[in-house]
Amino acid sequence: MTNQQNQLISPAKSSERMDILDILRGFAIFGILVVNIAGMAGPVWLPGYVAPSVPWYDELAGFMVDFLATGKFYVIFSFLFGFGFSVQMMRAEEKRQKLRSFYPRRLIVLFILGIIHAVFFFIGDILRIYAILGFLLLAFRKRSNRTLVIWAAIFLLLNFAVLGLVGGPLAGGGEAPEGINIIEMAREIYNEGSFLQVSLFQAGASIIAFLSMLLVQGGTIMALFLLGLLAGRMKVFQKLEHHYDVFRKIFIWGLVFGISLNGAYILFAESAWISSFFWIIGAPVLGAAYVSGLCLFRLKKDGARRLKPIANVGRMALTNYLMHSVIGALLFNGYGLGLYERVGAAGLWGITIAVYLTQIPFSTWWLSKYHFGPMEWLWRALTYKQRPPFRKETTMEEAAVQ
Question: Among the four residues 17, 54, 55, 134, which has the most C-beta atoms within 10 Å?
């Protein structure tokens, strides 16, 4: 292993890490589960699904998911993906490595992990979307800041058009006979099927889900990739204290406009174009308010210490994201506890909080012994075709001869 390779695959020193990125990832991991767990617990995302009448507390819990979480957290993750791309570019340049020498392989590995995830655990996997659009992001790496902003706007407009044509952000899949059949098939498979039967069903369903997500979310994800790349160039998170006033303004106005716009898209859900307009603007704006709020909290005197547990979850974001699906499969599928369509929205909030509160001490314990989460280590090892140090007592010299 060369010294340059050593520097690239080794864990970042504490002085090099921007802990705010880990904090934001750790926070976003919670929000992602808030949204995704509904798709693990029932056929709510499948074409033809009609929501049954539920108690008021489940209706309120479901509304809170749509209002506070749906569309906000994949926006944050997309922004962080673009920011991370910028950081990797700068780090590669410092080490005199070409980004193209490893980044395409990094995306291919991510896509393969996404396929495995979608087939065996959760058809709503987003890793494949990030991997595919990551190749498009490569084409923008040397573009001007102005070009990034223009193309981000274009991608958002394209996403707005798509949402308007398909019926809006909260639209169901219609009531075609094949949609109903898919739902009945899903109910039978997830309630009674073995692990193999569920996996075979998901092998096909995950392709449809992938294409649907790429169509409905792809434009927004790509726009946030570009804005994250721009923020990385501007070193927004390197010196938080220099941007305090900006974060404060974004937090206040982001909450005001974000809450208003998200309320409007739910209020006008029956109108595809109007709801899509409010969605395209409202979700990123409220997401920006969440990000700015965490940055402001991090700048408090004891902010870093108090947010450290969330940062630990964020350092293992890939592992924890995949862990959600493993836990979900064991809870809801018939080969596990068989709770499919047996838990309401309020109960799902309880499960989500319990899972996240478990991941916090688990991540803290794991990172006290290892440099990376297990999936982060695997991703890095396959990307660079070398074995990074894993246990904290393992030095780079020892890793080089393994």
Answer: 134
